[in-house]
From TrEMBL:
GO terms for biological process: DNA damage response; fatty acid metabolic process. Coiled coil: none annotated. Gene3D superfamilies: Alpha-ketoglutarate-dependent dioxygenase AlkB-like. This is Fe2OG dioxygenase domain-containing protein. Residues 66-80 have a biased composition (Basic residues).
Amino acid sequence: MLARRAAPLLRPLHPHCRCFSSSGTTTSPHPALSVLPAYLSPTEQSLLLRHSLALLDQPARTSAAGRKRRREWLKQHQRHNPPWDPAAPPFFMADDAYAWEEGHFDGVIRRYREMLVRDGMWRDVAPPAGGGERSALDAVLDKVYALVPAPPTTTTTTTTATPPPRAPAASPPPHLIMHLLHLASTGSIAPHVDNLDAFGRTIVGVSLGGARVMRFERVSAGAGKGEREREGGEGPDRFDVLLEPGSAYIQAEPLRTHYTHAVLERAEWDGRQDRLPTDQRHS
Ligand SMILES: O=C(O)CCC(=O)C(=O)O
Ligand SMILES: [Fe+2]
């Protein structure tokens, strides 16, 4: 279970460190934010990204114009040497092969595609059981679901109680609203606080594709120290974290409602500006 697996990772190394170690230890600047670098291995990332893109690309979820754009791009790129291969990294087609939503209804997200994953949907894109791929995908999904804290239980467990039947990995657990978000290389998310009623008290993200900077800013940044401690807890008023592919983050209270978060289109990260985003990102 995650709680046991992740417990040693949830301790901040240094309260203001902006650098990630690759040792699997979180380096979050805020006690209510956990960042788990390399939570998924490269193989797990590839599997999840490929199947997530396949879900987003299902004909029922795309427009006629989008499918035409995709067909034309594919036709052109099959003539390349080597031709574009959907089963090989980077798994994304070029930006101009997708029909992006230009702006979210409230203007927060720009140049993106998104969907909610409902019961059984991963089965629509996983190959039939028998090959190892389906069980490998299930294992990755279980690892992602394990990041989400279980809802509090009201019943007492006794040693003789039979555990509830395990839900198939193809269906997100009932306490998880699973949202796929594919950002164009020029896509971004403006600062916002997610609606508490719609999304619950904990927000978990798994990053795939291009690295991006996530910026957090205390909503009541102007408040005095005493008030700040009540509204958002200890931690700097504004900080950035680098979301590298394969990393996961967990935003818990009080950060989740007292800080905005944003995914920047382009940002400097410890002098690595030139190595940062020109890539699409999937979360
Ligand atoms: O892509 C992410 O990790 C964050 C997405 C987000 O903030 C949102 O959809 O509200
Ligand atoms: Fe958000």
